[in-house]
Design brief:
The complex is a heterodimer of chains A (298) and B (482). Helix content of chain A is 42%, strand content 17%. Chain A is α/β, with parallel strands linked by helices and 298 residues long. Chain A has one domain: Aldehyde Dehydrogenase, Chain A, domain 1. In chain A, helix 2 packs across helix 9. Chain B is α/β, with parallel strands linked by helices and 482 residues long. Helices cover 37% and strands 17% of the residues of chain B. Chain B contains 14 helices and 19 strands. The mean pLDDT of chain B is 97. The chains are: A alpha/beta (298), B alpha/beta (482).
Chain lengths: 298, 482
């Protein structure tokens, strides 16, 4: 891929980036020592990305579980601030993201820039939800008796997110942000063929105020890590977006998810247009409703 | 003095059975009529209090399930989805009124078939059933205000399978929101408690509900499986065991069916040292001995703060000594019959395991009737988290007592279960209640009360207690494509 990073340079040898996993706020290589070749749309070499193993997936779940009490216990205002900060840093890396997206997805420079802009705006949109979800989805329940009774949304826990295969940044942001904004933590499998924007996003998260372990990113093959995540007894929910168009795989994962009754957001028949208005679905799916009763009296 | 309290002597006060007219046999309620089975069999439903045969009912076969689903689909396409929402609501209001009018009959029949005390079926189950229909009747023409989008659509045909512990109440939790949202239903009641569902079918006839909107097919596990796995339904709603819930989650994988599951529980009832002990003991007793402990959200693990352990145990045992176990139709009865021989065997087995694993078993002096299925209220002390009676759902009148020292330890122990349906907290300190309520991973938290239910109040679990909510605005989401 020499021409990609040396495009506007002179004779200077460019310094390439090593793309690694993102687990618990650190950037390890795969414990398996394996990597795989990532190419651009024309088949030219871009990078060697880490090929995550089942053990990496389990480590990532552990990191996500460890981060859950802190992240879910943070105030909604604080989560909103932290996520907005991520958007600020994304903005600063627009050029790099556009380059990553265009290399992986093809298309014009303008289209890649538009996808990046949409991804940043999507992130800002979700950040603003942090302290509004409870008002919109909670309720005071007028029970027929002397009780104060209210319902509040709470995060489901650790969510395994299979990011879309095609839309490597906008799609990724559209599935990660709604999961973490409410206090869930997650393990994300990136697009297998287009993993670079996910790792660049991880670099942004690592240098923002998002605590380590809230988002963990695995690159590699879906078939290697997804079954482990879907059957893992310490994962509470799974978003199968990345298995869109593969009913055999997504059914297998949904069956595995039943072992501990994970909440499942099923894979669509084909990857949707992520530019569409997202609605609340992806946030709601990873929330539990807790109802609290207390007697009223003197 | 014996730790058990003294019972007052009361003369028997049985509720009359005359209000109930039972047929000798019942067919399936499909397309507005009672019909004979095409490929099923018949079985008997008995009173668990006396083992008397109450009636013969039908075990629906696969062809019956096909017919019921087809009737529901026709009714959905031709009638129910075309009816103005306001009119749907009026049918539900009408049903609610008939339930109130026939409340005594329903309560007696429920106690006969299920074994629960008439005091509970009369004062809790049936009033809540009517309230549930009233509540969702009002939603039918207000769905666009439910916060689920501007134009939420019904799903189509719902397949619903319900348990035997609150037969008609669970029917109402399933049918009322389904119909209010514009769906039609095929419902299977539990094999040991089909009778109130069949009486409900008559109520649908009295209400002139269009044929096929509600179909009731009786049967056991095979009938339930045929319904849940039927290709003609759009929605599965199940209340029952976590084991069956997982089977349903697997069998519906890869389909477009929307699934809600309300499953088992192993709730902790947490008693702090500043709680008024007598009041808390009332709540603890209600938490585990209400409905013979056949309650998925029962407070089956009592966590007592160490400093008040002795005092609480004395008070608890005294209160248990005053519980009246016996004839479900007697108005003085507190604890009725265990629902089935099978369930009794399960309760006995786990209680024996409790003893074998080293917990100390205690029951008040208690005369049990000779016929029928009975189990004395039972308390286990010296229970640890590793004991099976502290981990597995017993679904009977058996309380396991554990202790804790700090609030953090109480939370740790309460959450140390794959279930997450409910929890109870007893303390006088408001800030502690809210702190505990925040930390407990359970769908319902009762603070200084327990086992309260209301149609406006969402109910459902975390983790392996299932997913989806029933009741309240949240309960609509299970039956809408929003």
């Amino acid at each position: 891929m020499p021409d990609r990073t040396s495009r506007s340079t002179t004779d200077r040898m460019p310094v390439r980036k090593t793309y690694k996993l993102f687990i618990g706020g650190a950037f390890p290589r795969s414990e398996s020592g394996r990597s795989y070749e990532v190419t651009d749309v024309k088949g030219r070499f871009l990078a060697n990305a880490a090929h995550a193993s089942r053990k990496d997936a389990r480590d990532a779940v552990q990191a996500a579980r460890k981060a859950f009490p802190g992240w879910s216990g943070a105030t909604a205002y604080n989560r909103g601030q932290v996520l907005y900060r991520v958007a600020e840093l994304l903005e600063g890396r627009r050029a790099q993201f556009a380059e990553d997206v265009r290399a992986g997805e093809g298309g014009s420079a303008r289209a890649a820039a538009a996808a990046v802009d949409a991804a940043i705006d999507r992130w800002v949109w979700y950040a603003g939800w942090a302290d509004k979800i409870a008002s919109v989805t909670g309720s005071a329940n007028p029970v027929a008796g002397p009780y104060f009774d209210f319902s509040v949304p709470e995060p489901t826990g650790v969510v395994a997110v299979l990011a879309p295969q095609q839309s490597s940044l906008l799609g990724l942001v559209s599935v990660v942000a709604p999961v973490i904004v409410s206090g869930n933590t997650c393990v994300v499998t990136s697009s297998s063929g287009r993993p670079l924007p996910a790792i660049t996003l991880a670099e942004v998260l690592a240098t923002s105020d998002v605590p380590g372990g809230v988002v963990n990113v695995l690159t590699g093959q879906l078939a290697d890590t997804a079954p482990t995540l879907a059957s893992h007894m310490d994962v509470n929910a799974v978003d199968l977006a990345g298995a869109a168009g593969d009913p055999e795989l997504s059914t297998r994962l949904e069956v595995a998810a039943a072992d501990n009754l994970k909440r499942v957001l099923r894979a669509p028949a084909a990857e949707p247009d992520w530019r569409a208005e997202p609605g609340m679905e992806r946030m709601l799916r990873f929330l539990e409703t807790k109802t609290v009763w207390h007697p009223i009296g003197v | 003095m014996s730790p058990a309290g003294k019972k007052f002597e009361y003369a028997p006060a049985p509720e009359s059975r005359a209000v109930v007219t039972l047929r000798s046999s019942y067919g399936l309620f499909i397309d507005g009529e009672f019909v004979d089975t095409a490929d099923g069999r018949t079985f008997k439903t008995i009173s668990p209090a006396t083992e008397e045969v109450l009636a013969e009912v039908t075990e629906a076969g696969p062809t019956d399930v096909d017919r019921a689903v087809a009737a529901a689909r026709r009714a959905y396409q031709r009638t129910w989805s075309k009816l103005p929402a306001r009119e749907r609501g009026k049918y539900l209001f009408r049903i609610a009124r008939i339930i109130q009018e026939r409340a005594r009959e329903l309560a007696v029949l429920e106690s006969l078939d299920n074994g629960k005390p008439i005091r509970e079926s009369r004062d809790v189950d049936i009033p809540l059933v009517a309230a549930h229909f009233f509540y969702y009747a009002g939603w039918a023409d207000k769905l666009s205000y439910a916060g689920l989008g501007p134009d939420p659509r019904p799903l189509g045909v719902a397949g619903q399978v319900i348990p035997w512990n609150f037969p008609l109440l669970m029917l109402s939790w399933k049918i009322a929101p389904a119909l209010a949202c514009g769906n039609t239903v095929v419902l299977k009641p539990a094999e040991t408690t089909p009778l109130t569902a069949l009486l409900f079918a008559e109520i649908c006839q009295q209400a002139d509900l269009p044929p096929g909107v509600v179909n009731i097919i009786t049967g056991a596990g095979d009938t339930g499986r045929a319904l849940v796995e039927h290709g003609g339904i759009d929605k599965v709603a199940f209340t029952g065991s976590t084991e069956v819930g997982k089977m349903i989650a697997r069998s519906t994988a890869g389909t477009a069916k929307k699934v809600t599951l309300e499953l088992g529980g192993k709730a902790a009832n947490i008693l702090f040292d500043d709680a008024p002990v007598d009041q808390a003991v009332e709540g603890i007793v209600n938490g585990i001995f209400f409905n013979q402990g056949h309650v998925c959200c029962a407070g089956s693990r009592l966590l007592v703060q160490e400093s008040v352990y002795d005092e609480v145990l004395v008070s608890l045992k005294r209160r248990l000594g005053t519980l009246r176990v016996g004839d479900p139709l007697d108005k003085n009865t507190d604890v009725g019959a265990i629902n089935s021989a099978e369930q009794l065997a399960r309760i006995r087995e786990l209680s024996e395991v409790g003893e074998a694993e080293g917990a100390e078993r205690w029951s008040p002096p208690c005369e049990l009737p000779e016929r029928g299925f009975w189990f004395a209220p039972t308390v286990f002390t010296g229970v640890t988290q590793a004991h099976r009676i502290a981990r597995e759902e017993i679904f009977g009148p058996v309380l396991s007592v554990l202790t804790f020292r700090t609030p953090a330890e109480a939370v740790e122990k309460a959450n140390n279960t794959p279930y997450g349906l409910s929890a109870g907290v007893w303390t006088d300190k408001g800030s502690r209640i809210l702190w505990m309520a925040d930390k407990l991973r359970a769908g319902v938290v009762w603070a200084n009360t327990f086992n309260r239910f209301d149609p406006t109040s969402p109910f459902g679990g975390y983790k392996e207690s299932g997913y989806g909510r029933e009741g309240g605005r949240h309960g609509l989401e299970a039956y809408l494509d929003a």
